[in-house]
């Protein structure tokens, strides 16, 4: 992409030399002990997810849900991160990160940590959650223990629903070991032919189209138990029917995880869509990176499988339970277990956007800020649907990184294109694990006549932006939506994100410039309001951090608050260390990976890092800079990682409307920082400590508080006479979160 051709105001100001007080920080930047390894930090995040499953205060099915999330997270971790580390080891690279660990050292620590996590996870399932489910009339049965009537039903089910889909695959000199798909669940069978001593081997693949956890029939009585069996156990029990005439020796289940990263050279790929389709087919057959087996799998079976997959014992994991906790999903999705789940939550409608509102009229008067899922994402969908039908709307431009399979937004874009409007969609085909869905929607949009741009060469389009061009009564206007999350109606109900809807001319013109830069040939001109990666976001964030550093050195108010999914970028971490040495108070709310090590004397003692893991996935990004009493607040799609700054199109947008900015400063940020239920604080050694109220400090829980405010707003809008809750939160520019004991509202989440 062309370099920026204009400079921002921050860039035009001469850089201030680092104050004397930060010299200590510079001297210690080379010490690997001051940086946490990225992969190990991620595993600590998954440990926090596991803690939610361990938390006995959680509803029972919610605990099971978090157990499945741990396994799902580990699958992706092995498919992408561990696969990459193994490639580094095989290539004998000597590169080390700022933490000083070699790829081999990282791999050794990963497998040790994962074994601890998995052992804890399966012990929790077997010793605590299974008995608790049984107390509530929910059972996962062993087939061998079923009474005769149940066993007869299981036999019939196997014959009708499972047996027709099974295909035994011999493994011998004339039948090579089959290339099993990623995350596939299989059975390795050893048998003998009569009058022959030589063992025979075969593979039986567990079909993916049958639920891995099967619900057996229930009676009509209300207290009738819910009984489930594992599909793999069912097949094992009756597998002899696949091998008539043979004597079965042993049968053991296993699961293989493969490298699923896509390898695409944009400049060499003539047709990116076709190339990604080919890569998707290849990725399901990438090199194996992990083997999961049952605990009683004998050594010779394990050695045979490891040889087949070209793995070592370090890559093998014995699991005392289902080969993936994701197989428990039917328990999580069963509506009959509602009493064992979180209280249902219905997002509220923002009062500025009542039903049947004219969105364009509202946005000519004011900007609107929505906080999802507490504010309904349906309002965004309604606006796009209204724009598609509005004869005054001439053009719609949008970036699509992830969207749902039945996306109402894409359907509205198709309707708009069919109505003759100019529709431009920048579709990111390389949105990991959503590639196939995005290809499907890209083709449908093209068929409808929309202009579909498959990203930018060498970069992922990760920003979330919508631009609507409308001919109003007086003139042509731009309207925009800028978000921290995806245009995905389903995840918008479980991810926390922000949406800014605006019609302010300077901001909307800059968004139009971003779209023109992405779709056209012109270079990036430099913008005043928006920070855009890979052009200037990284450098401008550094300048904003340096401004706080220099303000603190000059005795002016200085503070930084950042809410992120991940903090990895070494240069930004070093700048935060500098600011800490200059006595800048820094609060970081980092959900997942954090490579910064806080509370190190004379380096990061003014930096506090917390992580919040709760009912909703914390996905929003907020950047706050005190700026000597005139705060700057940005929302963004970007985490502070090299990939976001240099390999993706990202946008950070300012919140400048006083009322909306005050909402972020005086309400949203303090609510996160005062959480004493779901927040954990990062310790200097890289571990996390769950925060608890101290003394008279109230027991605050951020997500619960946001939900309650949303519920009260819904009651008010529906005509309820009950007064809405008025939680008084302390402005962050006045009180540090450690002073939360002075807050006035106590809570009982």
Question: What features would you highlight for this structure?
Answer:
alpha/beta, Endonuclease, Chain A, polyphosphate kinase like, eight-stranded mixed beta sheet, disordered N terminus, disordered C terminus
Overall description:
The chain is of the alpha/beta class. The protein folds into three domains: 9-30 and 533-742, Endonuclease Chain A (Endonuclease, Chain A, 2-Layer Sandwich); 103-340, polyphosphate kinase like, CATH 3.30.1840; 369-519, Endonuclease, Chain A (2-Layer Sandwich). Helix content is 36%, strand content 20%. Strands 14, 18, 19, 20, 21, 23, 24, 25, 26 and 27 form a ten-stranded mixed sheet that branches. Strands 10, 11, 12, 13, 15, 16, 17 and 22 form an eight-stranded mixed sheet that branches. The protein has a six-stranded mixed sheet with strand order 2-4-3-7-8-9. A hairpin with a 5-residue loop joins strand 3 and strand 4 (199-205). Helix 4 (60-90) runs antiparallel to helix 5 and helix 12 (378-389) runs parallel beside helix 13.
